[in-house]
Amino acid sequence: MRRLAPVLRQDGADADLISLIKTILAACKEISFRVGQGALSGVLGSTLDENIQGETQKKLDVLANELLKDMILESGLVMAISSEEEESTVAGNPNGQFLVTFDPLDGSSNTDINSLIGTIFSILPAPAKADPADPSIFLQPGTAQIAAGYVLYGPSTMLALTTGKGTRLYTLDKTYGGFLLTQEEVAIPGVTAEFAVNMSNQRHWEAPMQAYIADLLQGKEGPRGKNYNMRWIAAMVGDVHRILCRGGIFAYPRDLKDPKKPDKLRLMYEANPMSMLVEQAGGASSTGYQRIMEIQPVDIHQRVAVILGSRHEVDSCLNYHKTDSSKP
Ligand code: AFP
């Protein structure tokens, strides 16, 4: 099986980008080890602190964030980093050609139940001669991403990565200590009979999503004419991985449960990198009204509604939104 660096070179990545990706993965290998140790290494449970999102930080959130932040900044390759666990950006090398924004541990509510979690990262170009301390340098649309990926800490530790030449899957070989190519080119099936949504929010959704999911639930007797299955891992990284492997549609739609926070998932370090991976694998990703990767960000922690996966199924869902008379 082929190692990561030659595959990246074949895809046109330059030495600095390869070095940056390997630095990110070096941190992820340490995170994988600590996650695998679980209760034995005293990293489970929560801290007494809250992050910028107002969420109680898990010990593993803090550990993963410190590892990634320190190793990426020490590489000298990045102008700045942004993280779900950092209130603002952290300046790096003024001559660094990259920016990295990441969710150090996505699905952290799963850490204490030994369920799927992962690290999501997005690599953007650093504007020339910019101020490394200026957060606005991150406010680039998803289409500007140079690379995007996640590391899934599951029964095996897997990497999904794209540099714009398709989406590839790698598996960590813990004997030699590197990621080996295990799926050359991911192709998401255009149609599916599997959806992923947190149904407990159903009464808070806007009308189009209510109507779309209601029709799926009617199964063969309903307008979709087939039965659907449902999955919900409560870690985007796990639900997206399933979709890359066998298709499906994932949605975390806008809900009115907390009017101050109508959307849940973060644009810069969840929705955008996942959208690049999914689109590069032939899928689609939308808010319901707009292609996610075309959103012009206004804040490094802004949230967005997400509907992504098998292209034809996403299109079916979007048709319910097109006929939504309450929207412009
Ligand atoms: P945590 O990292 O706080 O567990 O949130 C994970 C997440 O952002 C995303 O990965 C999941 O798809 C979604 O939240 C799960 O949200 P619910 O807990 O509301 O189902």
In words, what does this structure look like?
- It is a single chain.
- This protein has 328 residues and is an alpha+beta fold.
- The chain has 7 helices and 17 strands.
- It folds into 2 domains: 4-183, Fructose-1,6-Bisphosphatase, subunit A, domain 1 (Fructose-1,6-Bisphosphatase, Chain A, domain 1, 2-Layer Sandwich), CATH 3.30.540; 194-322, D-Maltodextrin-Binding Protein, domain 2.
- It has helices at residues 4-10, 15-37, 59-74, 207-217, 236-246, 267-280, 311-322; strands at 46-50, 56-58, 78-83, 90-91, 98-106, 117-125, 147-153, 157-162, 167-173, 178-183, 194-196, 229-230, 249-252, 265-266, 284-286, 303-304, 306-309.
- It has an 8-stranded mixed β-sheet, with helices on both faces. A 5-stranded mixed β-sheet has the order 12-11-13-17-15, with helices on both faces. A two-stranded antiparallel ribbon has the order 1-2.
- The longest helix is centred in the N-terminal third of the chain and has 23 residues, at 15-37.
- Bound molecules: 1,6-di-O-phosphono-alpha-D-fructofuranose.
- 1,6-di-O-phosphono-alpha-D-fructofuranose binds at residues 55, 106-109, 198, 234-236, 252, 264-265.
- GO terms for molecular function: fructose 1,6-bisphosphate 1-phosphatase activity.
- Substrate binds at residues 106-109, 198, 264.
- It holds the Pfam family FBPase.
